[in-house]
Amino acid sequence: MVSNNSIKLAANRATHAYWAVKDMIRQRQLHGGEIIVESRLAAALDVSRTPLREALQRLEGEGLVVKTANHSFLVRKVDLAEYLNSLSARLLLEVEAVGLAIDRIPGAAIAAARSEIHALMEAAEFDREAHWRSDNHVHGLIADACGNPVLAQLIRSLRVTTNLFEIERVADRIEPDSTEHLKLLDALEARDSKGAKLAMRRHINSLKNHATRSMV
After folding, report:
1. Three-state DSSP state, 73
2. pTM for the full model?
3. What is the per-residue burial (b if ≥16 Cβ within 10 Å, else e) of 128-149?
4. Which helix (H) or strand (E) holds 147?
C-alpha cells in the first residue's frame, strides 16, 4: 500500500519539475520547437521520468509544450502570424475586461503594481524575471477583477501564446511596456474607463507594431 508520505513526495517532485521546466522556457534554456529529451532533463533536474512526465502534461495543458506523434514533448513555437492573431483577440478581450474591472481594483493593488514597475525601470541591469512578474501583475489585476472567470481564463490562455513569442524579445520591450503599463494604471486609479480602455488598446497595438517591425 502506498503511504500518504510517498504520494506527497511524488507530488512535490512533479511540482518541482513543473516550475523548473517552466523557468527554463522563460529563460530560453529550452527554445520554441526544441524536442525535450526526457532522460536528459530528468537527470538535470534530479527527478525520475514519472514526475517529469506529469510536469510536462501539466505544461501541455497550459499550452507551453505540445506532444508529438511519437509521444515525446517539444516546446511550443509561436510564429508571427499566430502572435499577431492572438494579440488581436487579446485586444478585444482585455479592452472589455478593463471596462468591467475599472471599479473593482483596490487602490493599494494599483500602487503595488506601479511600485514594481518603477523598481524595474530603476534597476541597474535588466531583470527578465522581474519584467515577467510585472507584466503578469498588471494584466492579471485586470483579468482577476473583471468579474467574469471565463473571460479571465481566455485572456490567460492567450497570454501564454503571446508570451512564448515574446520570450526572445522581452528586453527590447522594458521601456515601452513600463511606460504603457503606467499610463494604464493611472487611468485605473482615476477610475477612468474610457482612458483605461484607450491605454489598453494602445499598449496591445504597440506590441503588434513592435513585433511587425522586428521581424522585417
Report:
1. strand
2. 0.86
3. eeebeebbeebbbbbbbbbeee
4. none
Q: What is the DSSP letter of 78?
A: -
Domains and CATH numbers, the chain: 4-75 (1.10.10.10), 80-214 (1.20.120.530)
Residue 70 has what pLDDT?
Answer: 86
- Cβ(24)–Cβ(167) under 8 Å? no
What does the pLDDT look like over 45-69, one tens digit per residue?
Answer: 999 999 999 999 999 999 999 998 8
Three-state secondary structure call for residue 105: coil
Amino acid of residue 32: G
Q: With contact defined as beta carbons under 8 Å apart, do 99 and 196 qualify?
A: yes
Q: Which among 57, 163, 178, 176 is positioned nearest to 113, based on CA atoms? A: 178
| Percentage, residues of the chain above pLDDT 90 | 75
If pLDDT is split at 50, 70 and 90, which confidence band does 136 have? very high
Rounded Cα–Cα distance for residues 7 and 12 (Å) = 9
CA–CA distance, 153 with 106 (Å, rounded to integer): 21
